[in-house]
Amino acid sequence: MWTPIAGNVPGLYERILARDAQSGVATRMLRFDPGTDTSANGIVVHEFWEEVYILEGSIYDIPLGKKFMAGMYACRPPGMKHGPWKTEEGCTTFEVRYILK
């Protein structure tokens, strides 16, 4: 089931596959509808590891000026700045979030 993500940006949805409320470990799918632009959310920074695999479509990283397409992978360590993004065609990703101790 896709759930809209609360906030300033319409067209963002998530499907939580697994989550541990105590540790913050989670796997999810993230969907950007065609035409979605996350500029209103600004740059994202979090304190967990995040691995992202693009399943379909593409997404454009505005600060990097780079387009990422289906089949590409990214690993973001805690504290790494990323986003905002936009997509013309839409994009679906698979994400794993975890904390190393």
- Count of alpha/pi helices: 0
> What is the CATH class?
Mainly Beta
Order of helices and strands: EEEEEEEE
What proportion strand?
over 45%
| Chain oligomer state | single chain
- CATH topology, which one? Jelly Rolls
- Total domains: 1
Structural class: mainly beta
| CATH superfamily descriptor | Jelly Rolls
CATH architectural name: Sandwich
Low-confidence stretches: none
Structural Rg: 13 Å
Principal-axis shape equals globular
Average of the residue pLDDT scores:
95
What share of residues is helical? Answer: under 10%
Main sheet, how many strands, which sense, barrel?
Answer: 8 strands, antiparallel
How many DSSP E strands?
8
Describe this protein's structure:
This protein has strands spanning 3-4, 12-19, 26-32, 49-61, 66-69, 73-76, 85-86, 91-98. With 101 residues, it is mostly beta strands. It has one domain (8-98): Jelly Rolls, CATH 2.60.120.10. Strands 1, 2, 3, 4, 5, 6, 7 and 8 form an eight-stranded antiparallel β-sheet that branches. It is globular and about 35 Å long. The chain starts with a strand and ends with a strand.
Topology, pairings included?
Layout: E1 3-4, E2 12-19, E3 26-32, E4 49-61, E5 66-69, E6 73-76, E7 85-86, E8 91-98
Antiparallel strand pairs: 1-2, 2-3, 3-8, 4-5, 4-6, 4-7, 4-8
List keywords for this structure.
101 residues; mainly beta; Jelly Rolls; 8-stranded antiparallel β-sheet; 8 strands; 48% strand; globular
In short:
With 101 residues, the chain is mainly β. The protein has strands at 3-4, 12-19, 26-32, 49-61, 66-69, 73-76, 85-86, 91-98.
